[in-house]
Amino acid sequence: MNTPRHTVRRAAERADYDPATVHAIVDDAWLCHVAFIDHPSDPPTDQDDAFPVSIPMACWRVDDRIYIHGSNGSRLVKRLAGGAPVCLSITHLDGLVLARSAYSHSMNYRSVVVFGRFEVVPDADKASILDAFMDHIAPGRRQVARPADVNELKSTTVLGLSLREASAKVRTGGPKDKEDDLNLPVWAGVLPMREQHLPPLAEAACASWPLPDHLTGWGH
Q1: Cα-only R_g, the chain
Q2: Residue 72: exposed, middle, or buried by beta-carbon count in 10 A (0-12, 13-18, 19+)?
């Protein structure tokens, strides 16, 4: 069921609330932006001092929740672990849409916006959720990298946000010129864009090592 907070109003025909669409867009992302209201004092003493903050964070999904992590001492983590309401957003830019008129130019994109409050992942589940993060970075990586030790896990807070109040918004296709502009002698179309994976760059100490099997497809 849609809530007033995550119901798309502007260009509502581009909205998609299907969890499969939301999950696919989230899974294509390594970064999200987390927006919340912060206060200069802790605890807050004056509502007039409140100000909005938007922070880029690494993110990953497990089932119907999106996760972020940070140091226990981080101001961001303290605010979010304390139940601050948030708006999390992800955007993938797929192309620049060139129309015949400046007014009708647009962009092709896939985006997700999520509303809610983060919850702290219990210590008993923290390691498995962070394993999923490693799998998201590079499948097979956690089988070769040293796992986090007890102290590293203890100093890290993992936060999960339900995707229940999530909406996707997608634009595809070419320009939508006004009828009066269709005969203008101006080229119109799409300049496609995509994220590109470049060949891995080894650290100097690993320069002579063969590329691990789990990375062989990265630059292709």
Answers
A1: 21
A2: exposed
